[in-house]
């Protein structure tokens, strides 16, 4: 039996669509109009051969829902990448700033994992100050888009919303 939207399973209940997000998932929320953030997402798409990560811009409804569950601020009030581990489960965990970047590197594996582990030895206060400095200057250094870029047809299934 195939798993498309129009088939029924053994319990006579429609099967979920194939592009449905598997749970638990690893979700990266990023500034969709930031040149640096866009380049980071493109890099992750290129090196994440197992399609481990899903993505959504901070400007999306997905981000608004995550923020409503975890923060008192609106997504656009943050200057940080947000990494959501176990997205849409009771174990959902939020990491931001350098903690998010380090965890993403560790999950990527290989040499990136080693870089992430090495990053944990730098005190968070120092890591986050460097992160904040880059975040403060990211539009000036890397540019800003008028709107979120659309993903390519090859990577569209990796983006939520």
Instruction: List the strand order in the largest sheet.
Output: 2-1-3-4
Largest sheet composition:
4 strands, mixed
Count structural domains.
1
Q: On the 0-100 scale, what is the average pLDDT?
A: 83
Helices and strands, in order, run as EHEHEEHHH
Helix proportion range: 25-40%
Share in β-strands: 5-15%
Count of helical regions: 5
- SS-based class: alpha+beta
- Shape category: globular
Rg calc: 17 Å
Structure description:
The N terminus is likely disordered. This protein is of the alpha+beta class and 161 residues long. Strand 3 and strand 4 form a beta hairpin. Strands 2-1-3-4 form a 4-stranded mixed beta sheet, sandwiched between helices. It is globular. The chain has one domain. Helix 3 packs antiparallel against helix 4. The two termini are 28 Å apart.
Keywords summarizing the entry:
about 160 residues, alpha+beta, about 15% strand, 4-stranded mixed β-sheet
Topology:
Layout: E1 25-30, H1 35-47, E2 53-57, H2 61-70, E3 82-87, E4 93-96, H3 97-108, H4 110-119, H5 124-142
Parallel strand pairs: 1-2
Antiparallel strand pairs: 1-3, 3-4
């Amino acid at each position: 039996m195939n798993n498309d939207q129009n088939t029924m399973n053994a319990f006579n209940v429609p099967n979920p669509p194939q592009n449905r997000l598997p749970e638990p998932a690893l979700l990266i929320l990023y500034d969709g109009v930031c040149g640096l953030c866009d380049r980071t997402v493109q890099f992750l798409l290129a090196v994440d051969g197992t399609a481990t990560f899903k993505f959504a811009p901070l400007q999306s409804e997905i981000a608004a829902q995550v923020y409503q569950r975890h923060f008192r601020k609106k997504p656009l009030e943050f200057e940080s990448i947000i990494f959501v581990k176990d997205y849409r489960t009771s174990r959902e965990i939020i990491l931001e700033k350098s903690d998010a970047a380090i965890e993403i590197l560790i999950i990527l594996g290989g040499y990136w994992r080693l870089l992430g582990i090495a990053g944990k030895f730098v005190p968070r206060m120092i890591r986050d100050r460097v992160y904040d400095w880059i975040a403060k200057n990211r539009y000036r250094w890397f540019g800003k888009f008028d709107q979120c870029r659309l993903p390519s047809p090859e990577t569209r299934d990796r983006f939520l919303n």
